[in-house]
Specification:
Elements (H helix, E strand, L loop, with lengths): L12 H13 L3 E3 H11 L5 H10 L3 E3 L5 E4 L15 H9 L5 E3 L1 H8 L10 E4 L13 E4 L7 E3 L2 E3 L2 H10 L10 H10 L3 H8 L4 H13 L3 H7 L10 E3 L7 E3 L4 E3 L6
Parallel strand pairs: 5-6, 9-11
Antiparallel strand pairs: 1-3, 2-3, 4-5, 7-8, 10-11
Length: 265
């Protein structure tokens, strides 16, 4: 029988007060600023540098790519293993720069809100135009996109609201990824929003985006959203494509739209 070695962690007296304070606060990410507060609250005489060195060495902090930030590994976690949180670097960024114009987006936002049973293979976040993502976030896909509605928050993360998800999916369908199970997530996402929010997010979008959006709403049974969008659409619709132009996919006559993405019904 193969023996499994579990590397246990020590809590030396020099760290006891710090660990007690960290266990009380349970931060997912520890920044240099937070550690300064923890050291003061614990009455420790350690410097930040010495505290970080010892906490990392004993397995209570895990290094991150984000500068001056570490993942806290609480006692409730078996051993000194990181959590595997796919958004830990985004959490670290926001802990240091809470006003960064970023949000969990597209299929990742669908997953975070629980509108899909299929977790995306790669996480996606969006950022406003003009902002450059740091290298620490390179494991996730970044999309430059200017959304209008305020983001929601889930588990401490900024996440696109449902209206933003569906409008962005209509505007940038190539970024959405999970079209194969759209009958799972698209109706659920549209059920979670209102006509007013969809219109507010869609203001200023082009005809192709609005046409796809109206088609999404109709396909999902949200005829109230279709009616709310009609004043934004021209009387004569141009031909619109949902997905690649070749092959063209199903022809939806009243929308003048070729659909090669949504599942057949």
């Amino acid at each position: 029988m193969e023996r499994v070695s579990v590397r246990t962690r020590r809590a030396p007296s020099s760290l006891a007060g710090l660990l007690q304070e960290l266990e009380l606060r349970q931060p997912k990410v520890v920044t240099g600023r937070l550690l300064t507060e923890v050291i003061a609250a614990a009455g420790s005489h350690l410097t930040n540098t010495a505290a970080v060195e010892r906490l990392v060495r004993e397995g209570w902090l895990a290094p991150l790519r984000t500068r001056d930030a570490w993942e806290f590994v609480p006692a409730s976690r078996a051993g000194r293993h990181p959590s595997g949180d796919p958004w830990i670097e985004l959490r670290a960024l926001l802990a240091r720069k809470p006003d960064a114009p970023v949000a969990v987006a597209f299929a990742s936002a669908v997953w975070e809100w629980g509108f899909s049973s299929h977790q995306p293979s790669r996480q996606t976040f969006a950022h406003q135009h003009g902002w450059r993502p740091p290298r620490s976030l390179s494991d996730a896909r970044s999309v430059s996109y200017d959304w209008r509605l305020q983001v929601g928050h889930k588990d401490g993360l900024p996440v696109w609201q449902p209206a933003t998800i569906v409008v962005a999916a209509a505007n940038r369908p190539e970024c959405q990824d999970n079209w194969g199970n759209a009958d799972d997530w698209l109706p659920e996402t549209l059920r979670a929003t209102t006509p007013a929010d969809v219109v507010a997010e869609a203001i200023g979008c082009g005809t192709a985006t609005l046409t796809r959006l109206g088609y999404f709403a109709e396909w999902s049974g949200r005829h109230d959203i279709v009616e709310a969008l009609r004043p934004l659409l021209p009387e004569q619709l141009p031909v619109t494509f949902l997905g690649p132009r070749q092959p063209r996919g199903r022809w939806v006559k009243h929308w003048k739209l070729y659909d090669s993405l949504l599942p057949s019904r």
